[in-house]
Design a protein that fits this description.
Blueprint lengths: L3 H10 L19 E4 L19 E4 L3 E3 L5 E3 L14 E5 L1 E2 L3 H6 L1 H11 L10 E3 L12 H6 L7 E5 L7 H11 L4 E6 L9 H15 L4 E6 L1 E3 L5 E3 L2 H9 L6 E4 L1 H4 L2 H7 L1
């Protein structure tokens, strides 16, 4: 039976084949979804991302709370349901741009998220996302798990491994705290050059074997450092090579409005 594990394992073998063959024309890139990290620069996201197969949109947060007591709300939500690249929407709840502060205030953000989830939205989410990210350096990550109890389901959280524990050790760390009814978005770390896409694929295999295939999706980082302290879009060649390791896998690209430019979509499609 041809499974996602078969596809992903096969992709890991391709770079080592070493056979001199004439390469066929590059097929169009297909991914299932993308992330939108709302800010003033992307207040009205516009693009033809459906050309890449994108139909699922993960909104990183519907609101952000910087501790001032006033929520910044994601704009233009009423435009989303008619977009072909947003036919399924996973709604992020209340986040904070400052990660250390978000972790210190995780319980308060969860309480605000529970209130926000009861508000009317111009679309029906297929799931929810709590945008306080985790990694093995967070020694109190169990506070995150406890904070998820009163949030709506289906629910997702995200995690990354800047500590480079390795695939199996990272999967064991996730299993220790991730509630059994919560899914995981794994951030591949390729955009920051934390690891190669081949290694990220091995992380995905270990995580899927540990927490279950239906509870895991991969976030493919579509940015790269620009050498001046900022980030640029990945080139078509960089992103195509990265995504080739996740063939047959549910992948969401981070993020569409900022990094999947019209020129990049054209080159990939």
């Amino acid at each position: 039976m041809y499974t996602r594990r078969t596809a992903l394992s096969a992709a890991l073998l391709l770079p080592g084949m070493g056979m001199a063959q004439r390469m066929p024309p590059m097929p169009p890139v297909k991914v299932s979804g993308m992330v939108w990290q709302p800010d003033n620069a992307t207040a009205r996201p516009q693009g033809e991302w459906q050309r890449l197969g994108i139909q699922t949109l993960l909104i990183q947060w519907l609101a952000t709370d910087d501790g001032s007591g006033k929520l910044w709300r994601a704009p233009s939500l009423e435009r989303l349901p008619v977009q072909p690249w947003a036919q399924s929407i996973i709604a992020g709840l209340v986040g904070d741009y400052d990660e250390p502060r978000a972790r210190r205030r995780v319980e308060l953000l969860a309480q605000a998220s529970a209130r926000l989830a009861k508000e009317a939205l111009p679309f029906e989410p297929v799931g929810w996302y709590f945008p306080v990210e985790s990694d093995p350096s967070w020694k109190e990550v169990n506070r995150l798990a406890e904070s998820l109890q009163n949030l709506p389901r289906p629910l997702w959280v995200s995690a990354y491994d800047n500590s480079n524990l390795g695939p199996k050790a990272f999967a064991r760390w996730v299993k220790r705290w991730l509630p059994p009814d919560v899914g995981l978005f794994f951030q591949d770390g390729v955009g920051l050059h934390t690891r190669s896409a081949a290694t990220a694929a091995r992380y995905a295999l270990a995580l899927a074997d540990t927490v279950g295939w239906q509870r895991l999706k991969v976030i493919a980082e579509a940015f790269r450092p620009d050498g001046a302290g900022h980030f640029r879009s990945a080139t078509a060649q960089e992103l195509r090579a990265q995504l080739s390791f996740y063939a047959g896998w549910p992948v969401l690209v981070f993020d569409g409005p900022h990094y999947l430019t019209p020129a990049l979509v054209e080159a990939l499609a």
